[in-house]
């Protein structure tokens, strides 16, 4: 049976659903909590859960102003259901990923039919980047779900006039505001305004039809109580830190070294949606030509607003544009529909470029792994990614035979299989070698543990308790003289102040794919 031409909607839905569950829930707890953002988010949620304080987010006992709390609350629920572990911290990230695919599928089916809905869902599921993102204890999977669903809802309201979708839009925006803050209002506002202008519908009547006053009330009723509570509980400290440092300054200044050249954002989108982003420029060109189609215009505007907005941002991160990925998947699926005969010629050059890129990737991974002392012996794992150029090569053969369905299924299926292999074997085994995991055995139970200035936050999650951070040499001297036994964690390059105390270095290891070395001293 040709799946891309079947009329069995129920069968296609269950295929999409099961693929999403396997890709996003598979080996969810296999990889340690180690990556910086994930470690801080998972530990912050743990401290809120254990302290029973769901208002003030703290990390290592110190106020954390990076994000609003909704993803912490979901992780806390995960801890309540499954215990405090990696699976629990990531459970609702994977759930959000599955929900996003389902929403994308139903929206595309509603406006384009079953075939394109299947294409869009498989394009989204083929992304290794998205499979990884749904395996992280971070706020982005939630934001992808809230914002993409919100945009689908408001568009459906504008087309159908069904008020429940308008109200749903504002509920989803409120959830996004509790997940990431004001960006959840700015981006939809820009998208809707530009869409109305480009579709020649912009007027006070059109804006009033969107029920902005009721919508503002819905957003305020859902989100404002927490913002007010945290502002009051912290004397405004959280409010100042979040809105000024983590919003305004991230847009106007490079934060934490996350800068890049002007077009870095579009590079992130292309890499993030491989393999089908190989056709992204053709898909956007096709969308512009077919902008008289309301769904295509809305998807085009949504995608471009995200890309251009974060292109202008001084801080550039791959996850910033991810909420528009379901909309980009629609443009890609729309472009790739009904590709037959001569029309397939337009796909060949991007596929050859993709083949070259995939041929380079395994060797780049080989050299990258070989430069990491803790995992150097695992460089052979890179050769497994030779399956990627093999997948592209097989897809190219079908392309030259004018067999679009086999081409598409080979490309999407091959990348999904590689994602499963990566998530099941490579990713867990590589990060099991991280210095936090490797050095935990050197921490003697019952010995006091402190940190000297900078240290890896993953230690807190696995030790299950706050770690006092010593910032000055005087504090270091005082701690050493006050304890018969002591463990000191640090990532500082200059450790002379520790060594002059006669402390013994019992472990040193370079953080995987990062610059600092984690060091552990014992008295």
Topology:
Elements: H1 9-25, H2 36-51, E1 58-59, E2 62-63, H3 70-82, H4 86-112, H5 114-125, H6 128-133, H7 140-160, H8 163-180, H9 183-198, H10 204-209, H11 212-233, H12 237-252, H13 264-272, H14 280-289, H15 294-312, H16 325-336, H17 345-370, H18 387-400, H19 404-431, H20 435-439, E3 449-452, H21 458-463, E4 469-470, H22 473-482, E5 487-490, H23 496-499, E6 504-510, E7 517-522
Parallel strand pairs: 3-4, 3-5
Antiparallel strand pairs: 1-2, 5-7, 6-7
Helix pairs in contact: 1-4, 1-5, 2-3, 3-4, 4-5, 4-7, 4-16, 5-16, 5-19, 7-8, 8-9, 8-11, 9-15, 13-15, 14-16, 15-16, 17-18, 18-19
Globally, the shape reads globular
Helix percentage range: 55-70%
The rounded Rg comes to 25 Å
Low-confidence stretches: none
Distance between the termini: 68 Å
Looking at how many chains there are and whether they match, the oligomeric state comes to single chain
Compute the number of helices. 23
**How many structural domains does the protein architecture include?**
3
Strand content: 5-15%
Structural class: mainly alpha
């Amino acid at each position: 049976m040709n799946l891309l031409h079947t009329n069995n909607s129920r069968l296609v839905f269950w295929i999409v659903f099961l693929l999403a569950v396997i890709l996003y829930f598979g080996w969810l707890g296999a990889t340690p909590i180690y990556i910086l953002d994930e470690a801080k988010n998972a530990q912050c949620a743990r401290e809120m859960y254990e302290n029973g304080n769901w208002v003030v987010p703290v990390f290592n006992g110190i106020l954390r102003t990076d994000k609003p709390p909704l993803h912490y609350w979901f992780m806390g629920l995960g801890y309540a259901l499954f215990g405090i572990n990696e699976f629990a911290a990531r459970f609702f990230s994977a759930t959000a990923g599955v929900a996003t695919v389902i929403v994308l599928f139903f929206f595309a089916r509603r406006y384009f039919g079953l075939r394109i809905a299947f294409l869009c869902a498989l394009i989204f599921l083929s992304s290794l980047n998205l499979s990884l993102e749904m395996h992280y204890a971070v706020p982005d999977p939630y934001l992808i779900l809230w914002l993409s669903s919100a945009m689908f809802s408001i568009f459906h309201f504008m087309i159908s006039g069904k008020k429940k979708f308008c109200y749903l839009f504002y509920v989803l925006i409120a959830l996004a505001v509790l997940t990431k803050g004001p960006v959840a209002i700015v981006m939809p506002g820009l998208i809707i305004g530009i869409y109305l202008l480009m579709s020649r519908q912009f007027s006070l009547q059109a804006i009033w039809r969107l029920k902005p006053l009721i919508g503002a009330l819905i957003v305020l009723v859902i989100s404002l109580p927490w913002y007010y509570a945290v502002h009051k509980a912290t004397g405004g400290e959280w409010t100042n830190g979040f809105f000024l440092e983590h919003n305004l300054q991230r847009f106007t200044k490079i934060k934490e070294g996350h800068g890049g050249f002007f077009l870095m954002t579009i590079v992130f989108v292309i890499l993030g949606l491989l393999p089908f982003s190989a056709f992204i420029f053709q898909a956007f060109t096709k969308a512009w030509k077919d902008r008289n189609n309301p769904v295509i215009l809305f998807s085009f505007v949504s995608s471009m607003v995200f890309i251009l907005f974060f292109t202008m941002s001084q801080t550039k991160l791959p996850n910033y544009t991810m909420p528009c990925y379901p909309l980009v998947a629609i443009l890609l699926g729309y472009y790739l529909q009904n590709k037959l005969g001569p029309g397939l010629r337009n796909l060949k050059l991007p596929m050859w470029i993709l083949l070259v890129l995939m041929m380079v990737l395994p060797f780049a991974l080989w050299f990258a792994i070989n430069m990491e002392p803790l995992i150097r012996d695992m460089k052979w794992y890179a050769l497994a990614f030779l399956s990627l150029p093999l997948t592209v090569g097989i897809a190219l053969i079908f392309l030259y035979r004018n067999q679009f369905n086999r081409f598409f299924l080979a490309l999407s299926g091959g990348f999904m299989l590689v994602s499963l292999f990566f998530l099941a074997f490579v990713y867990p085994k590589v990060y099991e070698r991280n210095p936090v995991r490797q050095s935990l055995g050197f921490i003697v139970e019952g010995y006091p543990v402190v940190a000297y200035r900078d240290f890896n936050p993953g230690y807190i999650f696995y030790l299950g308790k706050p770690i006092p951070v010593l910032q000055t040499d005087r504090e270091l001297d005082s701690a050493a003289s006050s304890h018969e036994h002591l463990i000191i964690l640090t990532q500082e390059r200059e450790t002379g102040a520790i060594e002059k105390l006669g402390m013994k270095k019992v472990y040193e290891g370079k953080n995987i794919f990062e610059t600092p070395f984690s060091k552990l001293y014992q008295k």
